[in-house]
């Protein structure tokens, strides 16, 4: 309990954080991606390190850079690479937080050469990517596991279903319904739901402040 007062309550804890989008290749020059900026995951990494945690930040392509002695940045591109990087360190971490906007589908075949514009209509067959968070839930031993959920309907019910399906300890539900929340924004409106389905709606606030709220949940897990 002494460390709680020292302001480094997460000293000695190892935290895996995923961030950013993934890019799924179509051919050597094209990909399927999304508008995730990576900001939420990077803000969580910063907050965690400032509380003394040692962080492994596995990030898809973003323009953010971070320089902190306690943050090890692992850059990946595709969902498969993110999956591999997460499982490489998962056994060694105390907490995992999945803030990445992982592509749900990827092209089934990647063209070896740049695709030429010959056909008038062009269909790309997609296959599911691996669900990284689901796999972390299945492999969970001692880890405190936090996921995000992005829903546009039946938000609370769908988020609760994700808690059970992915064996989570806590989910951070993102509300897109509010102006000023979500992708490419600096603010977020979230609701926390824990594994007992205790539901806590938060105010609209900066992503830095949301990151601090998330780390407070992590601290509470270790100290209560
Ligand atoms: N996630 C993941 N790997 C995937 C897809 C999602 O790790 N291939 C993680 C995200 O990082 C997030 C959580 O799963 O923490 C929920 O993502 P979300 O897109 O809301 O849910 P999905 O399970 O992908 O289901 P759907 O998109 O159909 O709602
Ligand atoms: Ca998804």
From TrEMBL:
This protein's superkingdom? Bacteria
**Glycoprotein keyword on record:** no
Q: What is its EC number?
A: 4.1.1.36, 6.3.2.5
Q: Pathway involvement?
A: Cofactor biosynthesis; coenzyme A biosynthesis; CoA from (R)-pantothenate: step 2/5; Cofactor biosynthesis; coenzyme A biosynthesis; CoA from (R)-pantothenate: step 3/5
The alphabetized UniProt keywords are: Decarboxylase, Flavoprotein, FMN, Ligase, Lyase, Magnesium, Metal-binding, Multifunctional enzyme
Cofactor(s), by name:
FMN; Mg(2+)
Instruction: Describe the location of the DNA/pantothenate metabolism flavoprotein C-terminal domain by residue ranges.
Output: 10-219
- One GO molecular-function entry: phosphopantothenate--cysteine ligase activity
CC cofactor note: Binds 1 FMN per subunit.
Q: Where does CTP bind?
A: 104, 114, 148, 162, 166
Query: What does it catalyze?
Result: N-[(R)-4-phosphopantothenoyl]-L-cysteine + H(+) = (R)-4'-phosphopantetheine + CO2; (R)-4'-phosphopantothenate + L-cysteine + CTP = N-[(R)-4-phosphopantothenoyl]-L-cysteine + CMP + diphosphate + H(+)
Q: Where is this region: Phosphopantothenate--cysteine ligase?
A: 15-224
Family the UniProt entry places it in: In the C-terminal section; belongs to the PPC synthetase family.
Q: What does this protein do?
A: Catalyzes two steps in the biosynthesis of coenzyme A. In the first step cysteine is conjugated to 4'-phosphopantothenate to form 4-phosphopantothenoylcysteine, in the latter compound is decarboxylated to form 4'-phosphopantotheine. Catalyzes two sequential steps in the biosynthesis of coenzyme A. In the first step cysteine is conjugated to 4'-phosphopantothenate to form 4-phosphopantothenoylcysteine. In the second step the latter compound is decarboxylated to form 4'-phosphopantotheine.
Q: What is this protein called?
A: Coenzyme A biosynthesis bifunctional protein CoaBC
- Organism the protein comes from: Flavobacterium plantiphilum
Species lineage: Bacteria, Pseudomonadati, Bacteroidota, Flavobacteriia, Flavobacteriales
* Coverage span on the entire protein: 180 to 403 of 403
